[in-house]
Write a structure and sequence with these properties.
By secondary structure, the chain is an alpha/beta fold. It is built from 11 helices and 17 strands. The protein is 31% helix and 16% strand. The protein is globular.
């Protein structure tokens, strides 16, 4: 009798819950496929973000992503220049496999091969709305443009903001109006917010590729002169504002817990640009070089209720990892007719696994210039870039012999251990040759052309000439003082 009464009461209780739920406000149900927002800065250095130690630049929104999500301390771009890095991001493959070694210019006829499979194409086939806002830079002729590479929508520019003939594309329509670059970051942000709002009821992939802080630098009037880090700091702080606007929009639409947001940079800071370039925070060199400062970049990932707050995954990760990660999160399949060099780091992001001690190959201009295995990095001999002027400007780099570093102990790559570890050098050289042999037949290198209209080099020339004149002036002053002293001694009575 007691048991029967208990069952009756339990039945009434459950029915009451069901009736109550029917009358309650409906809970918003999102697709199990997560939305993905990938935010790309151009030429931002490892030391340009507060979470990575920037002393004068304030980045509270990116810092929040790091504090409440994942911060990678050993995240690598696939190239120290932008076009190959972007090709690797979208395909999950080393650029060397694609014949993309350098930057495309307005006079370049080539682009990323349409036969490559992009992350946008895979996600689109999995039911995602796909959009790119910002800089493309993978070929500006029709067959290479975003709408032929898996993107439903495109608003932005075909290449870097220092190249001539720069107009906004609104999908396949060109807006033939001069771009006021002061408002470029703001314009991209507004277009991104529109895309998110338009596709809030379906899974979406938004690739927001900012032109800044690539030179020439521009910040809107609201940010110009606001940062203690000068104009460069103004630009970074406006990018951080943009990140904040994206996060606020996702929260307002109740999309935060179903949206993975990633922020990173395509390569290291362009030190050649002086105070218009960023900081590598103690890492060696910057953009254009395969030292750590050129390819180790800030990278944070934010996904409330999925990524534990404040994790810093061990081991390295690379730009090529995002394609397999995004594809697997979407429940889609990787192409099986080509090598994918990236690794799915989804479990690393949610704190269920630690990163692996993987191999990584550093390429520049089609040459393998360095190799990392675990904590060890082997740097192959390099002839340098105008090394005789290295004392004048940090952007000029001296040549070097074979270098071996332990990055765990020496992330700044200052202590060459090659002579003390000949067996390690020999072993790593053998691994390099094995990797090269495994590449098989490579496509012909894409011709990139030569940019003849690059304005910021004038600023660099002025800086170098200024230092030369300063040194020459000091030399003349010392010479004058010396001559006067000699003349004074010759005229003194004791000299006779």
């Amino acid at each position: 009798m007691i048991a029967a009464s208990y069952r009756l009461l339990r039945f009434v209780f459950l029915c009451g819950i069901a009736v109550s739920a029917m009358g309650a406000d409906p809970v918003v149900q999102h697709s199990p496929k997560p939305n993905i927002v990938f935010i790309f800065a151009d030429d931002m250095g490892y030391g340009d973000v507060g979470a990575y130690g920037a002393p004068t630049i304030k980045t509270p929104n990116i810092d929040r992503m790091a504090a409440e999500g994942a911060k990678f301390n050993e995240f690598y771009a696939a190239s120290p220049v932008c076009t190959p890095s972007r090709a690797a991001l979208l395909t999950g493959r080393y650029p060397i496999r694609q014949g993309i070694h350098d930057v495309f210019y307005p006079e370049s006829f080539q682009g990323m091969d349409p036969e490559e499979t992009t992350v946008a194409e895979i996600l689109k086939s999995a039911g995602y709305a796909t959009g790119i806002v910002g800089k493309w830079h993978l070929g500006h002729h029709q067959k290479y443009m975003p709408w032929n590479q898996g993107f439903d929508q495109f608003f932005g520019v075909p290449y870097s903001n220092d190249m001539g003939g720069l107009y906004y594309f609104d999908n396949q329509t060109i807006q033939f109006e001069d771009i006021d670059q002061r408002y470029m970051t703001r314009t991209y942000t507004e277009k991104s917010l529109d895309f998110i709002e338009a596709h809030q009821d379906e899974p979406f992939f938004l690739y927001l590729a900012h032109n800044m802080p690539h030179v020439p630098l521009y910040a809107s009037p609201e940010f110009e002169g606001k940062s203690a880090g000068g104009l460069y700091g103004d630009v970074i702080e406006e990018l951080d504002w943009s990140v904040g606007e994206i996060l606020k929009k996702l929260q307002a639409l109740n999309l935060s817990s179903n949206t993975l947001v990633v922020f990173t940079s395509d390569n290291g800071p362009w030190l050649l640009m002086g105070d218009h370039g960023g900081s590598a925070a103690g890492l060696r060199e910057g953009k254009q070089f395969t030292f750590e400062g050129g390819m180790r970049v800030p990278a944070v990932a934010f996904w409330p209720e999925h990524i534990p707050a404040g994790i810093e995954p061990e081991g390295l990760a690379t730009m090529m990892d995002w394609l397999p990660t995004f594809v697997n999160l979407a429940g889609a399949s990787l192409p099986d007719d080509r090598v994918i060099d990236g690794t799915d780091i989804g479990k690393v992001l949610i704190g269920k696994e630690q990163g692996e001690n993987r191999d990584f190959y550093y390429y520049m201009s089609g040459e393998l210039r360095a190799y990392r295995h675990g904590d060890w990095k082997l740097k192959l001999p390099y002839k340098g870039q105008v090394g005789a002027l290295a004392w004048l400007h940090a952007g000029f780099v001296r040549g070097h012999e074979t270098l071996l570093f332990n990055l765990q102990d020496d992330p700044g790559e200052q202590n060459n251990l090659a002579k003390q570890n000949p067996e390690k050098v020999a072993s790593m050289m053998a691994s390099i040759e094995q990797f090269k042999a495994g590449l098989g037949e490579l496509p012909e290198a894409k011709k990139t052309g030569k940019n003849m209209i690059y304005g910021p080099y004038i600023d660099l020339l002025g800086a170098v000439v200024g230092k030369v004149l300063l040194v020459f002036g000091i030399f003349l002053l010392l010479l004058t003082l010396l001559v006067r002293k000699l003349i004074k001694r010759l005229r003194s009575p004791s000299s006779s």
